[in-house]
# Entry
Amino acid sequence: MLPPDRRSTESTSSPALLKRPPYTMAAAELLEELATDASTGLALAEVAARQRQYGPNRLAEAAPPSRWRLFLEQFHSLVVWILLAAAAIAGVLGEWIDTLAIAAIVVLNAVIGYLQEERAGRALSALRRLSAPTAKVRRGGPTHSEPTHSEPTHSEPMRSEPMRSEPASGLVPGDIVELEAGDNVPADVRLIRAFELAVQESALTGESSAVEKDAVAVLATDTALGDRRNMAFMGTIVAAGKATAVVVATGMGTELGKIAGLLGATPPERTPLQRQLEQLGRVLVGLCLVIVAVIFALQLARGGALFESLLLAVSLAVAGVPEGLPAVVTITLALGLQRMVRRNALVRKLPSVETLGAVSVICSDKTGTLTRNEMTVRELVAGEHRYRVTGAGYAPQGAIVPADDSLPADGSLPADGSPPADDSLPA
# Structure
């Protein structure tokens, strides 16, 4: 069991367990510091204790709002409040048809917005369940009364626990995991053994090429994140080779978790559409007050009764409120959202649709981000002959056809997927 002074209720494992950054320590020293064993891993009781101590290995997320709160959020707009006030005033004046019409429009607007956001929330939850990662982990090591070793001794051969597939959310610092080509790195790990290991870290560092790793390296404290070649980080992908590693940070204690924490600390901003609607609402409030004041004064000057003059002024102000504006805006955004869904783009908040339309400049790294970071052959020259190559990337689809052969402008294959009849190369 870990000493009491090293316990922490936070999900930041590395600072609580280690005296120095893991990439500055040799593998044997790190294993001893983490009280684990490369051959047998952590004891199951110790895994359970550390899971209670550090929590699940996942990025922290805000709890989704309840359904009633999500519905009430649809009314958080100055224009909607103006409409509700107009409906109330119309009711006081006895204009029940106007009251019901305005209320119906406000409720319709809220229902449409709620249904769209609730549907998007369910879709995101389903995607998270489908993408729940697993990890190959070695567990079942010696109990605390037994000594731990980083390597087996000659006099007493060490048994080796087999790897088992476990949910990545259950990983804890000190777990021994195995990585191989195609795996998602489930947590921040320090490599113990590596064989021709290369990791694609573009999602974390922006480096488009796979980074070669070295488990033997011991690095300086000031080594930049992208140069820590004895480490592999959560959210990256193993491009080649295989390795055995020890988990040194989980959840929000990982490098990816630190980025998520910075993003979560940024307060949400109003979208351009929301700011414009708020401005319009303030203008409408000002105009209504001016109209009420002017008409009320004119009516009194003409000898009208005080109460009747007030009712007339308020009625005209209510009539000037654009009742259909929120519904028109919401329906327009909903139609745009449906078009994006047909293109496999999922938007959680309706106003974000308009925000995307207002974007004029997008700054992004290109290789591996906007592009797929896959080399693609388009044309071959063999002697005096030229050939075009269809298909894209590493997918085993496409054909080699003479350059003068008729193909669609985008180079795609016929609808049935078969290559043209004269696609064979000369002997």
Summary: The first strand starts at residue 134 and ends at 138. The beta strands are 134-138, 163-167, 176-180, 188-200, 211-212, 231-232, 237-249, 379-382, 385-389, 400-402. DSSP finds 13 helices and ten strands in the chain.
